[in-house]
Amino acid sequence: MKIEYLHTMVRVKNLQNSISFYELLGLEETRRMDSESGRFTLVFMSPPGQKNAHLELTYNWDGDDLLPSDSRHFGHLAYQVENIYETCTYLMANNVTINRPPRDGRMAFIRSPDNVSIELLQMNNTLEPIEPWVSMKNVGKW
Amino acid sequence: MKIEYLHTMVRVKNLQNSISFYELLGLEETRRMDSESGRFTLVFMSPPGQKNAHLELTYNWDGDDLLPSDSRHFGHLAYQVENIYETCTYLMANNVTINRPPRDGRMAFIRSPDNVSIELLQMNNTLEPIEPWVSMKNVGKW
User: Fold this and answer.
1) How would you classify the pairing of strands A74-81 and A117-122?
2) Residue pLDDT, tens place only, A11-69
C-alpha cells in the first residue's frame, strides 16, 4: 500500500501576517482555495522546487478565538537553509525574534505569528561559531 | 536564500505504540538517535522513497505528563494513499478508528496514539462511493 507525504496543516489567525512570515523564510504560495460556503481560505506554500512538502495554512474568515495556541504533541516544522547566519540576520531585520540563536553555527528556532515552532538547520557543514551569535541569549521557549 | 523542508516533529508518549501506528500507515523508520544525556530518543520515519518528508517522533524517556494534548494551531499531517478503501480497511483491522470515513471515495481522517490528526487522501482520481463507507458515521472529531 503506497503512501506519500503531502503536507502539514496549521491554522492561522491572520492570513496575510502568516503568508508574509513564511515568505520571509523563502516559501512561495503555490495554491489557494477560497470556500465561500465553508467561509475559509486554504493557502499552500512550499520551498521553491520542492514538490510534496507543502505547508497548508487554514484561515477561517470568522476568526478563531482559540488561536494562537500551544500543544505538547506538535513539536515543530524544520527547514534547512543555505546560510543560517544570513537567514537569521534577514529575519531579525524583519522583526522576527530568534528564540534560539545559532550559537553553534548549526541550529536556530523561531516562532510563526501563531506560535508554531520552526527549526532552522544549516545545510551541509556546520558554520564556524562567530559573533554576534555566540554571545546571543535565548528568548522565551520554542 | 535557499530553503528546504526537512520534517515535522511530534512528541509521543509511548514510542513503540507510535512506531507501530505509523508503520501501519506504511512509513518506515529511517534514522534513530538515542541521547543518554538528554534522556530522549528521536525516530525519523518516512514513506518509502520519499526523501525530505520525515516525520520526527520525539520520545522523552522520563515521560511527558502533558501528552496527549490538542491544539488549534496545529491541524494535521496529510498523506495520499493508493487506495483509500484498502488503507482504511487495513487500519480498522488493526484497531485504528476511522474518525472520518471516506464516504466520498476521496478523504478520511484518523488520529495517532497521541491525538495527532492525520488526513488520508486518495491518490489521483476519486474512487466510486461504495458501501460500507457511504453509510459509515463520523466518530469524534479530527
Assistant:
1) parallel
2) 888 899 889 888 888 889 999 999 999 999 999 999 888 877 889 999 999 988 877 77
The count of CB pairs under 8 A between chains A and B is 173
Range of the domain at B131: 75-142
Q: Which residues of A touch B68 (CB under 8 A)?
A: 72-73
Do B84 and B141 share a structural domain?
yes
Number of domains in chain A: 2
Cell of A66: 482559540
B56-89 pLDDT, tens per residue? Answer: 999 999 988 877 776 667 878 888 888 999 999 9
CB contact under 8 A, A50 and B52: yes
Is pLDDT at B1 greater than 70 in this prediction?
A: no
**What CATH number has the domain bearing residue B120?**
3.10.180.10
Through-space distance between the first and last CA atoms of chain A, rounded to whole angstroms: 36
ipTM value, please give it: 0.79
* B28-35 vs B40-46, strand pairing mode: antiparallel
Average pLDDT over residues B31-38: 96
Beta-carbon neighbour count of residue A58 at 10 Å?
17
- The predicted model scores a pTM of 0.77
C-beta atoms surrounding B78 within 10 Å: 21
The total number of residues shown for chain A amounts to: 142
- Let me know if residue A27 belongs to a domain: yes
The answer to whether residue A23 is catalytic is no
User: Does the residue A137 lie in any domain?
Assistant: no
Are A45 and A82 found together in one domain?
no
